Amino acid sequence: MTTTDPDHGASQPVVEMIGIQRSFPGPPEVEAVRDVNLRIMDGEYLSIVGPSGSGKSTLLHLLGLLDRPTAGTYRLDGVDVRSLSERRRSMLRGERIGFVFQAFHLLPYRTVLENVALSMLYRPISRRDRIDRARATLERVGLSHRLNFEPTTLSGGERQRVAIARALAAQPTLLLADEPTGNLDSGNADTVLDVFDKLHAEGLTLAVITHDVDVSYRADRRVRIADGTLTEQWDDVPTPEAAT
Ligand SMILES: Nc1ncnc2c1ncn2[C@@H]1O[C@H](COP(=O)(O)OP(=O)(O)OP(=O)(O)O)[C@@H](O)[C@H]1O
Ligand SMILES: [Mg+2]
């Protein structure tokens, strides 16, 4: 066995994108994501910030295996996803990725507990275990006192926290959020971002996509996307002058 890997023994990235590109044929052809190189390490809380039309949702769909790149390599938890069949990709997606979107997409006539428990309906676990797991996940997002409420009776921040609990119920390795605070006032946005802080402290790997610079600063690493191109943001690292 040869061990020439310089990172041998270090933690493996959850996400490794190399030269990822996604263009839409058009006409006119749009290069929505260009030559993206991105690594997300286990336990990292990353934000991707950029203006409307910069390629954020396209990138999220690629990260979440909802779409395929036109070029490049993507390894999720070390698995090269390019070669997988559609069936294996959707299995991997269901096992590894939790999604949170701007619109909460909750079932209106079901309780909070049912909304979360029903997300596990097709998993090989008993109804009893689904309920127990849903209850535990709702406790993680601070909603133990809302289990029997219907979504329409909740605040926006509470609804989004139900959606987060639903995404976490499958115990994903990566939580992907696309404008999770886009429908919320600042007070409700804060309650959602506080939950992300807590989940991050518990070791969850998070990638939050946003056009809101304030939201992006809650992450411990920020990357910027503009015209489909990613750049790391180093402006929050102290300059050598500031450090002395
Ligand atoms: N299915 C598609 N077909 C053609 N062009 C698309 C498609 N999806 C996205 N695009 C184009 O790719 C570019 C990036 O779109 P994307 O939705 O990723 O932007 P975004 O950063 O998420 O914007 P917003 O902040 O408004 O949600 C845009 O120019 C968009 O028109
Ligand atoms: Mg978008």
Structure keywords:
single chain, 244 residues, alpha/beta, Rossmann fold, six-stranded mixed β-sheet, four-stranded antiparallel β-sheet, 8 helices, 32% helix, 25% strand, globular, disordered N terminus, binds adenosine-5'-triphosphate, binds magnesium ion
CATH topology, by name, is: Rossmann fold
Q: Could you estimate the helical fraction of the residues in percent?
A: 25-40%
Bound small molecules, deduplicated: adenosine-5'-triphosphate, magnesium ion
Roughly what fraction of the amino acids lie in strands? 25-35%
Question: Any idea what the CATH architecture is?
Answer: 3-Layer(aba) Sandwich
- The N- to C-terminal Cα distance equals 46 Å
The fourth-level CATH homologous superfamily is P-loop containing nucleotide triphosphate hydrolases
* Overall 3D form: globular
Mean pLDDT across residues = 89
Number of helices: 8
- CATH first level: Alpha Beta
Main sheet strand line-up:
6-7-8-3-9-10
Low-confidence stretches: 1-9
Oligomer: single chain
SSE run: EEEHEEHEHHHEHEHEEH
Biggest β-sheet description: 6 strands, mixed
DSSP strand tally: 10
Radius of gyration: 19 Å
Whole-number count of domains: 1
